[in-house]
Each structure stands twice: as structure tokens, then as C-alpha cells.
Amino acid sequence: DYKRVKVSNKSNERYIKNSFNGITDLQLKLFFNIYIKKINRCIIEPGEAIGALTAQSIGEPATQMTLKTFHFAGISSMNITQGVPRVNEIINNTKNIATPIITIYLNDGSKNSA
After folding, report:
1. Residues linked to residue 113 through DSSP beta bridges, in sequence order
2. Per-residue pLDDT tens for 11-68?
3. Fewest CB atoms within 10 Å of the CB: 33, 89, 95, 111?
4. In degrees rounded to 5, what are phi and psi of residue 111?
5. Domain RNA polymerase Rpb1, which positions (predicted)?
6. Number of helices followed by number of strands (H, E) in the chain
7. What is the torsion angle, in degrees rounded to the nearest 10, for the CA atoms of residue 33, residue 38, residue 40 and residue 44?
């Protein structure tokens, strides 16, 4: 049987508390409890069939984006440049995204787009 993840690293807790102002000890513990439950639910046994679920997890959003592209083709305010090309960027881990929709500014002053 595989070990489940446990939160025992106090330095991680200190780092998170120091990184975000206003987080209480209770909020941090609740966050870690939810996080650990989600991690533990993701553990799979060797040999478990995950191919169909993986294919569905990739294919379903691609299908929905493509359908959305066709439905909003005549609307000028709608960004329809995503669909399958965006899925290809995600799957191929493209460094230079053609149409970034999120810009994240990091603490060191640099920025990343997704």
C-alpha cells in the first residue's frame, strides 16, 4: 500500500504564512487539509486503467472550445482564436503563447503569460 501525503514540513507553513499577509493559522490549516485530501484522491494504483479518463480529460475541453469557436464566429467582441490551437499550445507546453489570456506578475518583477 502506498503512503499518503502528510503535512509535516513546518518550513513550508512558515514560508506560506510569510508570503501572504493576513492568513491566519486556522486558514492555513484548512487550506493544507483540503490540499492534502485532493492530493491523496489523485493517487492511483499501478496497473489502474487511466487511458480513457486521460483522453476524456484532454478531449472534452478541446471539443468545447472548438464548439464555442463556431458558435461565436460572428461576434466581434468574442475571442475565437483559442479552440484546437490553444489545446496544442497546452499539450506541447509552448513557451511563446500566441494569444495569452492571463498575465501573472511575479514577486521579482518579471511576468509570465498563460
Report:
1. 103
2. 666 666 666 667 777 887 888 889 888 888 888 888 888 888 888 888 887 787 777 7
3. 95
4. -140, 150
5. 34-111
6. 4, 2
7. 180
Nearest in space to 99 (alpha carbons), one of 83, 77, 76, 75 = 83
Residues 6 or more apart whose CB falls under 8 angstroms from that of 97 comprise 89, 113, 114
d(CA 95, CA 25): 37
Q: Which amino acid is at 66?
A: T
Q: Are the beta carbons of 83 and 69 closer than 8 angstroms?
A: yes
DSSP for 76-107 reads: TTS--S-HHHHHHHHHTT-SS-SS---EEE-T
